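Shipment paperwork, digital attachment
Item: protein structure file
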Amino acid sequence: MKILVINGPNINMLGIREKNIYGNLSYPKLVEMIEEKSKKLKIQVECFQNNIEGEIINKIQSGYGEYDGIIINPAAYTHYSIAILDAIKSVSIPTIEVHLSNIHSREEFRHRSVTASACVGQISGFGPYGYLMALDYFNETGVVDEKICN
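Attachment content:
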């Protein structure tokens, strides 16, 4: 099984920015946690981070036929990127949306995710463990094409 992990804008600043919301864990440490978990599960994983919407779209599209699943934290793009939504839909790769913070307990504009409707599910508010939960889901289910809930 091959999983692509995509992180959007400012995730590279983990451990530096808004520690009261995102904690002290750095982006390299997050990647290390994901890679360690994937090794235990015998899942191949590629981690990618970019601040540019078009590059995220290019990465999603390049995954077509290459990956069995995507874990994505679109970050701020979550709330308005129809382009990322369309990219996820276009590749038909089961995708899980992950957020470090609980987007539903933050500012009103963060409560809405335009990208979640193209995803199998959404994990929000568990910090870096959300990524590990997503890996567990893919490992346990063998990846599915349908949504958990409609």
